[in-house]
Amino acid sequence: MFKQTTWEKSLIFELSIPGRIGYEVAELSDKEKSLLSQSKQRIHPDLMRKKRLDLPEVSELSVVRHFTRLSQMNYGVDTGFYPLGSCTMKYNPKICDFVTTFPEAQNIHPYQDPSTVQGSLQIMFKLAKWLAELSGMSKVTLQPAAGAHGEYTGIMIVRKYHESQGNLEKKTEIIIPDSAHGTNPATATMCGFKTVIIPSNEDGCVDLEALRSAVTDRTAGMMLTNPNTLGIFEQNIEDIIKIIHDVDGLAYYDGANFNAIMGKVRPGDMGFDIVHFNLHKTFATPHGGGGPGAGPVGVITRLEPFLPVPTVDFDPDTQTYFFQYDHPFSIGKVRSYFGNFSIILRAFTYILRLGNEGLKAVSEMAVLNANYMKSLCQTIKGFSVPYGKDSFCMHEFVLSSKQILRDTNISALDISKFIIDRGFHPPTVYFPLIVPEALMIEPTETEPKKMLDDFIQILKDISRLVYSDQEEERNQILEAPCNTSVRRIDDVKAARNPILSYRMLKQQEE
Ligand SMILES: *Cc1c(COP(=O)(O)O)cnc(C)c1O
Question: pTM of this prediction?
Fold first, then answer.
């Protein structure tokens, strides 16, 4: 029986007792003091700090206990099964985290002379090359800090490309299927394009007729996820890309689902021009709660001049790695410094550890796990798979509980809360938008069959409970979660009235 810990709810600020000390910084040595007094800029905390910081005063022991308790009120990939569709809650081998603790990784600074960080540059250079190889692109930038940031980078490249052709005034639209992740239309809009949404066909794929009628001379490009967010591989991918290329549009590949196809097919071979990766979804890195992540972007040869500066290059004459700023048509810099290095290092380690065959096996296991679950879940009373019911899925599938809502008035949200009560993280709900009462299930490739079976059993239990004629059995679902640190949260209030810091809480109270 799952029961999440509940501890006292004090904030660390409320545990503060004046005079308590958690850590003492050593006195400056005489040498340090004399260096400091010589420094022209007078770098000294007392001179730079503008006001008192109001930090909590707590002992080391209270700090450790406080955060240990908080972690026990949380749920993560190290706690249990986390089938959060589209997010790819990856198993993160501990070696990837371990490598980032090396002093060579931790004690470097972006302003250091490149001659002193050749190893780090080599890692960046190699990772970019491997990503290019895996995706069939010609060159990759590691700068973007997230998938959405990669999209922004890619669509700015689309913009700059049309500008360089003297066509920007004409090329005003980006085509996006209605199954797309919300970041796609947001990106197109942010980059100054008009978004043209096209409906999916009954198989959940791009409707070629709808695409043909949406494509015009105004089409600057198309953003496509393949496999798409329904977990379905686009059957007519080459036709789709030809239609876009025929009007001089560029084909953008949203690579958030790349873990389904690693080492199997390459977006470049499908005809795509620009690809983003989510290193935090495909190549290790613990993620969730907003980062940090990395969203490298790869392009075909023709688009290399538009990449952000700098890229990491290798000079064979001097055998050194260096930052290349010579990109005359560059969209500019998209991030301070050179990217999230610790995430880059984790992805590098992950790929190095697994190798070609290992990466291929990751994709195969992800697809096998998803198909195993899909085939069993869709036979449970009340649940169905509206798209791709009779075909194989890729690394995820979208279940619908609309029959349960119709028969019993119990929603996908209620179901997901009950799943939490059983000690599992629920699937993504209500996305993609084209599936009513969607439960988007993505089992991590490293989960054993027993774990998948346990999850399927929960859905069976739910089906039994919702169709029960006993009021209290139905109520078990409606009242969930009961076994968690916090019960149902008022999502709307949290979104409308977010209190995200101690200072905001204090202001609210006053
Ligand atoms: C996660 C995701 C994104 C956005 O990536 P972030 O790293 O969260 O910004 C874009 N598209 C799809 C299909 C995704 O699953």
Answer: 0.92
